[in-house]
Write a structure and sequence with these properties.
single chain, 291 residues, alpha/beta, globular
Length: 291
Amino acid sequence: MECERIGKYGSVVKFRTDDGIMLKGVLFRNVIKPMACMIFVHGMSGGALSGVSLAIAKGLGDDCALFSFGNRGCGLVSSFTKYSRGKKMRFVAGTNLERFEDCIYDIKSAVDSMSRLGYSRFILIGHSTGCQKAAYYQYATRDRRIAGIVLVAPCDDYNLNKERLGRDYKRMREICSKMIKAGRGGDAAPGAFGLSAQRLDSLINDGKVEARMFDYDGRLKEFGTIDTPMLAIFGSEEENATKPVGMCLGILESRTSSEKFDKLIIRGADHAFEGKERALVRGIKKWIDGL
């Protein structure tokens, strides 16, 4: 792990995941030793300095730090350095190529890196598909260092993509399945905006955990086992919602195992919360203060 200071209390942190990939992020803090550290997990094609993460960084109080890092899904197609058996090599991922389940390596290693810097209490904040990743991480690991999870715009990627594909949905599932079986899962699926066959299949195949995580017509089996305190937030003008956002939040509340599940709708906010960043940060800070 490498740590480079920015200004008085800002740092660029480079770290290696357990499977050998080098990632980096920015640690924001207003004091030397805040009580807790928020870990920001960006969505599809995002990065460490997304609009939502920067809004949270600008609104930091003195009792919490923010580590916003670029996971292996940053950008559409991105090149990373990977170390394997002592050898340095090039690893290509990004939203179009990443394997969803590998987000466990990214998030765990980000938390481990902040632990080495002295933090012991963490809040996972996911935005968009970062919500699926944050929730899946906690479902799969039961990491007791995680004191809370904030889901910002936890949209239903499964039904959203079914709607977008329309009559082509079944055909695309079959195409992806055939490509994966033929060993061509890393090739671009036809008409899928550059997504590889395995990446698109992860989104539109309800046999895959990514598709199921926030399928609001499904059982939410994985989500329902998470007992960590949670806050789920939608903007009232969420353009990617397949149901009214209030209904989505009600479904999450009905399926959660958490004894502390809270929900918030920010009036006038879209998926990126543009122009409503202050309201978003106020809601997050108020909830964290109540943990």
